[in-house]
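User: Please predict the structure of the protein below. I'd like the answer in structure-token form so I can feed it into my own downstream comparison script.

Assistant: Understood. Taking the following sequence of 278 residues as input:
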Amino acid sequence: MEPTLLNEIQSVLHEAVIAAGKRSLEFFGRVEAEYKQSATGPEQFSLADRAVQDLLIERIRSRFPSHGIIAEEPPDASEGILNLPPKPDAEPLWWVIDPIDGTNNFINGLGYYCVSVGVLGPAGPLAAAVYEPNREVLYHAVAGGGAFLGATPLHARPQAFHQDAFIGIESLYAGGIPPFLADWMTRLRTRNLGSAALHLCLVASGVFHACFCLKPKVWDWAAGGLIVREAGGTFSRPDGSDPFDLDLSGYRGKITPYLAANPDVYPEVQQAIGKHFE
């Protein structure tokens, strides 16, 4: 990709997520929960999710009308997601949008949430931005260019597990707590902050040693996965393969489990979670 185009994508991406974050604050503490049907069952959302998503799409389409868009919220009260493919004669680039990652936090008045957008191309992720409105901080990365919190470089700190190590986990284990997690809960400090994208950013920042998610959709990790990699961490499926190896043209909400970790603990994390899926 031409550097000029990638720079323009970055500029639009950063401006869009910051504007979307400011838009979300207009709704914070003022919305009620609604429910939609997804591939994994009923999910909460609010009017804020659609308002923020609409702003993002408007910003993106005003500059890149031929690019594809995948977004969490369907265009109306229908089931499913929003999948707008790239124009047939255009470069096959996709903007993958999570308008409010941490919706349950948001609806319940807990201000730990973010706006997350990743830009993906045929060869993999190109750019990513995760904006946390309540702290006014922007995590971002570009393929081959490193990962940053604002202007500060991020590094997934190489460090082995120890009794005070943090590992990010998800909510709701309907089938019971997996054995690997039960083990970690006896010797590590588990944290669930309610936002998959921000968990990934905390791995990239060296705050978390690792994180995982067993039931995510592509918008949960499209931005954060690149930020982890550009910070020197590892991001993969439980079997070690690449989550970004995904056909977006037919994407309708497929679950793609992932794990992310610093280089020292990744082998242990991958082995433990990989066995869970055998």
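That's the full token string. Residues 3-25 form the longest helix (23 residues).
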